[in-house]
Amino acid sequence: MYELAIIGAGWAGFNAAIRARQLGLKTVLIEKGQIGGTCLNRGCIPTKTLIQSAKIYHLTKKAKTFGVEIPQANLNFSQIQSRKDSVVAKLRQGMDYMLKGIDILSGTAEIIDPNTIKAVDKEVKAKNILLACGAKPIELNNIKFDHRKIVSSDDILDLKELPGSLLIIGGGVIGCEFASLFSTFGVKVSVVEKMPQLLPGEDKEAAKKLENIFKKKGISVSTDTDATGLGLDKYDLVLLCIGRVPDLEGLGLDKLGIKMERNRIVTDEYLRTCIPNLYAAGDCTGKIMLAHFAAYQGRIASENIAHPDSLKKADNAVVPNCIFTDPEIASVGLNEEQARAKGYAAGVNKFDFLGSGMAHILDETEGFLKVIFDKNSQDILGGVIIGPRATELIAILTLAVSSRLKVSQIRDTIFAHPSISESIAEVFKP
Length: 430
Prior knowledge:
Blueprint: E1 4-7, H1 11-22, E2 27-31, H2 37-42, H3 44-61, H4 77-98, E3 103-106, E4 109-113, E5 116-119, E6 122-125, E7 129-131, E8 135-137, E9 150-151, E10 165-169, H5 173-184, E11 188-192, H6 204-216, E12 220-222, E13 237-240, E14 244-246, H7 253-256, E15 260-261, E16 264-265, E17 278-280, H8 291-306, E18 321-323, E19 328-333, H9 336-341, E20 346-352, H10 357-362, E21 368-374, E22 380-387, H11 390-402, H12 407-411, H13 422-427
Parallel strand pairs: 1-2, 1-7, 2-3, 7-17, 9-13, 10-11, 10-13, 11-12
Antiparallel strand pairs: 4-5, 5-6, 8-14, 15-16, 18-19, 19-22, 20-21, 21-22
């Protein structure tokens, strides 16, 4: 009998398995698809690889700005896709290597009882089970995937050629990243969002800034718009990306009586389901659907399984959110509205990248950095960045919020000049 059986080898399951091995737990990992789950195979890694190609293409076309004359920039989409596949394959090979010493079963899994899983036509016995089965794209009732004209964020990664026009239904993180990417590749892009702004839930000012930048680039943006009334025939391709839902099909959770809420697995603060030896981590819990949060949950789950007498709460709410548009957007902690709703005397400081020497050197001056702090305690509560290197800079603010650093501690830190990172010190100056 195994001490731990993990269903799903995405970022939650993979990190849980590695931590379980370190803790001496005899572990089996069951995956119906490929090691790496959504993040490696259909999400973070392939999309960011494509985005990097788009950045290089964009830089090549504007090379003359830097005094470098390139006669013509030719886009080889087939080669771009080949590089993406190569990067994914290399990383998957690395993950396979890191899982050495852990039993891996390839196939679907069904939980028969709290200690038995039917996997690959055989029964697996385990003292504990961790559900890390991830999530899948959502369809609309009257707009469904046909995987040819109407595609998901999974499908679009495998395009053989670029469409002439692309309608993106859903202006959230995934929709905006693909809008930025395909627009750079020369595709005529239209984005439709049902909510009043792009990136619902994100800082309103940053979202509006991105919308204005999109429009400058020729991307059509329609907010407060219901896609069900649109004529889809006039577009070469339609990307439906309105969110994701836990992928629980075939697991047998209904027979077990696992508590569910809005199609997600309900857990307590220690990641236990209503059945004490069944845990859940990652996107299937429907809390924060981000790979780095899934990895955090996976590690905590394994630690709690290994040490049931000293359970650890999975309660770190300081989770950075990164959006790889052009320009990038990143945020962490509380925004201004949230801070005031929680009773803080919220102060807001803002620094425009037009004031950054390195931003001018890079020719990336669009955007700003905004921080929120408590005027009374001077604790740093959160921040949002739209501009160059935002997804890297957010790590500094994440550490500041997580460690409850004071405004003066960042303001008095010496950052290198010229650099984009010194903008974080600048934003705290009186």
